[in-house]
Amino acid sequence: MPEERWGTGMIGTSRAPGARDAHRAPAPPCDDLAALGIAPDDLPDGLVIADEHGRVICVNAAAARITAVCATDALGRRLEHVLPLEDLDGRRWWQLTDPYGGLAIRVGQPERNLLLPGGREVLVSARYVRTHPTGPVRRVLVSLRDTEARRRTERSHAELIATVAHELRSPLTSVKGFTATLLAKWERFTDDQKRLMLETVHADANRVTRLIAELLDISRIDSGRLEVRRQPVDMGAAVGRHIQAYVAAGQPADRFLLRVEQPLPPLWADPDKIDQVLGNLLENAVRHGEGTVTIDITPSVSPREGEEEENTATSVTVSDEGPGIPEESMNRVFTRFWRGSKRGGTGLGLYIVKGIVEAHGGTITVGRARGGGAEFRFTLPVGTPAYLQ
After folding, report:
1. Closest CA to 148 of 112, 110, 121, 113
2. Which of 88, 219, 261, 365 could, after both became Cys, cross-link 298 (CB 3.0–4.6 A)?
3. Is the domain 150-223 a CATH 3.40.50.10420 member?
4. Cα–Cα distance, 180 to 144 (Å, whole number)
5. CA 357 to each of CA 229, 362, 381: distance values in angstroms, whole numbers, following the listed order
6. Backbone φ/ψ region at 153: left (φ over 0), alpha (ψ -120 to 50), beta
7. pTM for the full predicted model
8. What CA–CA distance (Å, rounded) separates 269 from 231?
9. DSSP string, 323-383
10. Nearest to 383 by CA among 228, 267, 227, 224
11. pLDDT 10s digits, 345-362
12. Cβ contacts of residue 331 below 8 Å, gap of 6+?
């Protein structure tokens, strides 16, 4: 007995070894699909099936949601009336494709963007089921997909490209301008002027390097390839180094308050990536916050997935006394391109921070500090390498 195969929103047929096309059983209607163990409503994509006469015999729940057509009203109606699809040039798709006529060797239509009434765009593909390769069409299976998720991805990629182009243009213009000036008029400048120009070029080159590193991190996070090389990490010392760098750069020492609760559990993490997390969080607090920046490092507990017992972890809380983050923006803080203010930045830092923390098996949250400012808290499990356990 041949079998009907279901997959990716459409039905195909497979031939049993030695079986002949003429011996194939007719395709079961949707009401008989329970015998196969699969219901049309279980499919993630929209599915509409028409019989050999072009009348709809099945509309699953996803198709009803995408097309806003009631399944019970669609049954028995002509396929072109249930799905009055048009291409992007306004031509009626069923007249162009003519599934029941035309060449008898056609097996379907590849996926393409089409329009429903009202201009809603959907991804549509079709499969023509025949009793034999050149026989009449006995079923037309139409798969429907909502384009909104794909459009969000495309918009995100477009925003990323635009952000990268904007962020690269400024430092590269500066580098090109200063180097061209130095090459053309080297003898006219004093040593102090040359040093100032070269320091500017150096700073802009570092800015470009940092942006490229962020893009690589995003690529690894999105593809699940972010590697964590665990080593012993002294979280208190790591935070202290960042504070010293800010003080050396001109920030007042009394703006930072570091509190470490002892004893802390031995933490195994990637030192470079932890420095990246701390750098982003402290930079946000200094740049966008006000008043004292408080960093609390405390022992904590973190239940591992699949285990009932709680395992030791370290929590780091970075808070400030600024205006804080509006409540309606809390759920967007860790998304791409979110900016707390218009004071520079690519809007990628906190997205990368979340990816790094989660790659360590930890969690990160955002809230409002007691002083009214923003409060970021991330928790990292001990993460002891297996060979030391």
Report:
1. 121
2. 261
3. no
4. 56
5. 13, 5, 10
6. alpha
7. 0.60
8. 5
9. S---GGGGGGTTSTT--SSSSS--S-HHHHHHHHHHHTT-EEEEEE-TTSSEEEEEEEE--
10. 267
11. 567 888 899 999 999 999
12. none
On the 0-12 / 13-18 / 19+ scale of CB atoms within 10 A, 80 is middle
Pairing of strands 310-319, 293-303: antiparallel
**246 phi and psi angles, rounded to 5 deg:** -70, -40
CATH 1.20.1250.20 fits 3-146, yes or no: no
Question: What is the pLDDT averaged over residues 215-231?
Answer: 85
Q: What average pLDDT does range 41-66 have in this prediction?
A: 91
Q: Name the strand (E) or helix (H) holding 10.
A: strand 10-14
Q: What is the layout of strands, in order, in the sheet containing 363-368?
A: 256-260, 293-303, 310-319, 374-381, 363-368
Residue type, 58: C
User: pLDDT by residue (tens digit) across 68-93?
Assistant: 899 889 999 999 999 999 988 889 99
d(CA 63, CA 74): 11
pLDDT at residue 357, rounded to an integer: 94
**C-alpha closest to that of 83 among 117, 121, 51:** 117
Fold of domain 231-388: Heat Shock Protein 90 (3.30.565)
Do the domains 150-223 and 231-388 sit in the same CATH topology, yes or no?
no
Are 65 and 31 in contact by the 8 Å Cβ rule? The answer is no
Beta strands 256-260 and 293-303, pairing class: parallel
Please state the domain extents for the chain: 3-146, 150-223, 231-388
Q: Which residue has the tokens 């665990």?
A: 230
DSSP state of 55: B
Across 219-255, b (16+ Cβ under 10 Å) vs e yields ebbeeeebeeebeebebbebbeebbeebeeeeeeeeb
pLDDT value of position 164: 74
